[in-house]
Write a structure and sequence with these properties.
Layout lengths: L1 E4 L22 E2 L2 H12 L7 E4 L8 E7 L3 H4 L15 H8 L3 E7 L9 H11 L7 E5 L4 H11 L7 E4 L2 H15 L7 H10 L5 E6 L5 H12 L6 E4 L17 H8 L16 H6 L3 H5 L1 E7 L14 H8 L4 E4 L4 H7 L18 H16 L4 H6 L2 H13 L6 H19 L1
Parallel strand pairs: 1-3, 4-5, 5-6, 6-7, 8-9, 8-10, 10-11
Antiparallel strand pairs: 2-4
Helix pairs in contact: 6-12, 6-16
Length: about 425
């Protein structure tokens, strides 16, 4: 596969754009999918898969113009009139080759799962204005259901020439790499055997679950409210920072101010007396919670997205860090997240943990998770229960690390798409 850069040394494009997003990072950067594929090639001794060229070099074959797009589509597309369209920053060679169906531009938003209702229409409108076929646009995103929502939109709007949408959970590869490096460098994460030993020796103070919440999000306030109502806070290692007093309207429901006053008592709630906002976000993204996983029987993963109205499914580092630490889990995130985990190769814990919540609407899902936690809390011999999940727990960590030694599914999807389009062009 051929990739072309304006700055080949730094593997970047859109170098004329100096925009900084509201989150403080550059609007464009290095494609995470390309970075991950390069790592996979190195670990698997795959040579000649990725060919890098400078924009000044002559290339007779089709090529891809890769870039990361950072933060939400409001920031990187140009939909917001405060910034120009990303098309504006394509150099003349790129625009000419895109118009002549010789190049693709790959916009890689795999570090985020943002979805907006206007995105698909905007893409097609911009393609028309810049005289570029939508088939030349490749959109990689952390929204694992974006391809499905786009296909539905295209069908509903009778769209023939379509962009290519590729879901990709970059944090899976990122956390897998960190897990692999820790094992390789003899600084391993807790093994299943470590869990059994620690839990056996400290059974009297092992908590039923962990639920870690750093950044205040609507679903986290609501779930903390449900945990509080159910009397489960003391059954787990739960972290929760204090938050402002207002109604927290989420998916059509609002918490009363009186109720907010009740659940604010005792906040911030710390785990092991450690603050979770002393350092920058990158520190916490890369930190594995070894001791917390050892001190609990399972983890309720407080994901970044949860509401059905978000029209997304995002699996962040939070999910894959738990797998790396050999802990069973519930995902308090988007609908069908557990089904997606099975789809991408993992085993889940139905039969040990009630996963009936997975297909339910938002608030029903959160309340069902509460009931699932209660069922685990009621188990008399939790050590035996944990031990019975050995095969699943070990399998999941093996899958996480094993994916480092083959090309990412998202890259295979990209390659198959480009090769297919190229074959069709050659037949015409």
């Amino acid at each position: 596969m051929n990739f072309v850069f304006e700055d080949k040394f730094n593997l970047t494009n859109f170098t004329s754009c100096k925009d900084i997003n509201r989150s403080g990072i550059s609007r464009f950067g290095i494609s995470p999918l390309l970075t991950a594929t390069n790592i996979n090639c190195q670990l698997s001794n795959i040579n000649g898969e990725l060919n890098y060229y400078s924009v000044d070099e002559i290339i007779d074959e089709e090529y891809i113009i890769p870039t990361s797009v950072n933060h939400s589509p409001d920031d990187w597309t140009g939909y917001d009139p405060r910034v120009k369209s990303f098309f504006f920053y394509l150099n003349e060679k790129y625009l000419t080759d895109l118009r002549n169906n010789k190049a693709y531009v790959m916009l890689d938003q795999s570090l985020e799962g943002y979805q907006t209702p206007w995105l698909w229409e905007w893409f097609h409108k911009e393609c028309k204005e810049w005289n570029v076929s939508p088939t030349r646009i490749i959109y990689v995103t952390g929204n694992m259901i974006a391809d499905e929502t786009y296909e539905k939109w295209a069908k509903d709007n009778n769209v023939i020439e379509k962009i290519k949408v590729i879901p990709y959970s970059h944090f899976e590869l990122d956390m897998g790499m960190m897990c692999y490096e820790k094992i390789r460098d003899n600084h391993p994460l807790p093994t299943f055997e470590d869990h059994i030993t620690h839990k056996t020796e400290n059974i009297s103070y092992i908590k039923t679950f962990a639920c870690l919440n750093k950044r205040i999000r609507l679903q986290r306030v609501w779930f903390y409210n449900y945990l509080h109502q159910a009397g489960l806070i003391n059954k787990g290692l739960v972290s929760m920072n204090s938050f402002d007093k207002h109604g927290y309207i989420f998916e059509g429901q609002e918490i009363s101010k009186e109720r907010i006053d009740e659940i604010l008592v005792g906040l911030p709630l710390l785990v092991h007396e450690k603050s979770n906002n002393e350092f920058d976000d990158n520190f916490y993204i890369r930190r594995f919670n070894n001791q917390i996983s050892l001190d609990t029987f399972m983890t309720v993963i407080s994901e970044a997205h949860c509401g059905d109205s978000d029209e997304t499914m995002f699996l962040s580092e939070k999910t894959f860090k738990v797998i790396a630490c050999n802990s069973p889990f519930i995902i308090m995130g988007n609908k069908d997240s557990m089904e997606m985990m099975r789809k991408i190769g993992y085993k889940t814990f139905d039969g040990f943990i009630d996963e009936g919540y997975d297909h339910l609407p938002t608030h029903e899902r959160l309340q069902y998770i509460i009931e699932s936690i209660k069922k685990v809390d009621d188990i008399q011999d939790k050590l035996k229960w944990f031990s019975s999940m050995e095969e699943i727990i070990k399998y999941n960590q093996s899958v996480l690390v094993g994916k480092l030694f083959k090309l990412p599914d998202a890259y295979i999807n990209l390659k198959n798409h480009c090769n297919h389009k190229n074959k069709i062009k050659n037949l015409i």
